[in-house]
Amino acid sequence: MQKFLFFIIGCLSIQSVNAESLQNTVKQALSNHPEVNASVNSRYSAEQDLRAARGGYLPTLNLDAEAGQKNINDATTRAGGSNKGMNLSPNDATINLNQNVFDGFATSSEVDRQKATVDSRAFNVLNVSETTAFEVVQSYLDVLQRQEYVRLAEDDLANHERIYDQIRLRTDQGVGRSGDLMQAEARLAQARNNLLTEQTNLEDANTTFLSVTDEAPENLSLPENIDALLPKSLEDAKRIMESNSPLLKSANADIEAARQQYEASKSTFYPRVDVELARSVSNDTDTTRAHSEEWQAMVKMHYNLYQGGSDKAAMQSRAYLQKQAQDVRNNTLRQMNQEIGLAWSALKSARDQLPAAADYADRSVKVRTAYQDQFSLGERTLLDLLDSENEVFSSKRRLVELRYLEISSGYRIFARTGELLKSLKINPTAAGQPIDSASNNTLPELQ
């Protein structure tokens, strides 16, 4: 039984000289996948919002200037003997420097909110990358599995054609029964239909692979065994997931962003204090045609005392949004616990069934060989022989199914714990780093 299992696994592990590894396929797919790129651009957008929020710490500098022509016709100009008024060429300029001194912590809270938003977007980049990578893994393994099914169906068809030829020869020689020939024809038709079904399923798998990776599947090879990298228990998997999952980290960052938004809403209950420096120059602005200059240095305070309860309602609204973010995070954790539990159950079930499935396939092959010998001696009916062929096909197909279920379940666990890219030895994009841990804040130039 063990020899047969090793033989099947060995057949699955055969690689071409130019085989495309799972690692390279995932890496290539992540480099140009629209969803990954969209999440990266969303992260860069949030970082620019952070830069805009930090601008609140800096002064504002404004320059106003004007020049033109105007005519003044009033009592003064008419008293001077001009009934058509006075034509003037006024021009003036004002430069104003304003520095906020205190805004009720609105700027600092907004900066912290945008930091949390950047972190949320960064972790979302990692989550989208992990999710996309798992879609690639699934499509990759599905193609390999469907290829194995096609090979099994081809072998099964070849065996049924051999049996049919043998029965037809007997019938033509007058030593066979017409009922046996009809039965062989029926099973042969079924084998052909099975092959067509598997080929159709393979084409569907190829189409999915092309959609996910933007490349046609060619020379795929079975990935290396990952059993040694998997958590030792479901409890370990959940612990790793809670501390490492980018989806949970993104949800936690959303909670912090909502909290800072709530803190910023308190700023309306404080006065606002600004320091303002201004300098202005004007010429020919009135009938005196005078040149004037003015400067000022002012400390200004604005304190809203009452606004119909709007500020308090807005603050309470932000408090509910913070609770909503916490509920979203808790629900996310609940769903992820369910998903990783299902993945672990599938992995354990596949592992438990594999030895029995391998033994079943091994014994089915032996039974088929024995039935073939006995059929030649007239000790077995054709129905026994045909049933043994179906048994071999079904048992081998089930063995392949369980083997790929074990592999895909392992990768599913990696995806849920946020360690799929790590298991594939792929470095995530720099956009997936939180703002404080990013090596630099240089953004790509917009095209």
Q: What proportion of the residues is helical, as a percent range?
A: 55-70%
**Number of β-strand runs:** 6
Strand order of the largest sheet: 1-4-5-6
Order of helices and strands: HHHEEHEEHHHHEEHHH
How far from one another are the termini?
A: 61 Å
β-strand percent reads 5-15%
Number of helices: 11
- Spans of 5+ residues with little confidence (pLDDT < 50)? 1-19, 438-447
- Rounded to an integer in angstroms, the radius of gyration calculated over CA atoms is 38 Å
Q: From the helix content, strand content and strand pairing, which structural class follows?
A: alpha+beta
Described by strand count, sense and barrel closure, the largest sheet is: 4 strands, antiparallel
Characteristic terms for this protein:
447 residues, alpha+beta, 4-stranded antiparallel beta sheet, disordered C terminus
